[in-house]
Known about the structure:
Radius of gyration: 20 Å
Oligomer: single chain
Mean pLDDT: 91
Largest sheet: 7 strands, mixed
Number of helices: 8
Low-confidence stretches: none
Strand content: 15-25%
Order of helices and strands: EHEEEEEHHEHHEEHHH
Amino acid sequence: MIKRKALLFIFEGYSEFEISTAISMLRSTHDLHTVGFEKKAYKSEAGLTTLPDLIIDEVNIGEYDVLIIPGGDLKPIVENDTNQLMDMTKRFAEAGKITAAICSGVYVLAKAGILNDIPYTLTLTKEQREFLGCFQENYFCYLPTVSYQNIITAQGHAYVLFGIELNKMIRDVSPEALDFYSGKRNKMMEERYDKSNKSVKRTKADLA
């Protein structure tokens, strides 16, 4: 089975935990490629060093189903605002591909004009949103995640739900996967634990 492809934008100071659930769940259906402004190593918010597979000019949008933009320090994005990132993001959205952003990464969607007249959420204060000057305030929703057609935005603290909701846009997510990624239970471990306990009980019974 040939996997589809997903694209993750990375930059200096990107928040890796915000996209951890999303990309872990995607691994069963998609190959993940990373893209950056330059072909150089970027350090994440927690210090993880990541070398992008591609730079923006090398991206063939037709090869990808999903674009994910994490939050983090917006300064590198603002300083590298040559419209390349915004143009790529807009083309993803206009092609009907899943375009997902979380926390401050939603700025990219707003700057690209994708959020005009549609509901969204993100982890920036009203003052920060007004300062950046690309958000329509009356469409802001203080909700964990907001999905509208092929666009999904999320608060940074809602990274698990963000990953789940993104993957629900791709396929049916099993109840077992929902429980696992929500931290409720691990069905595989429970089945093995039950089997192991039964084996131990049988062994003790045989010895009696």
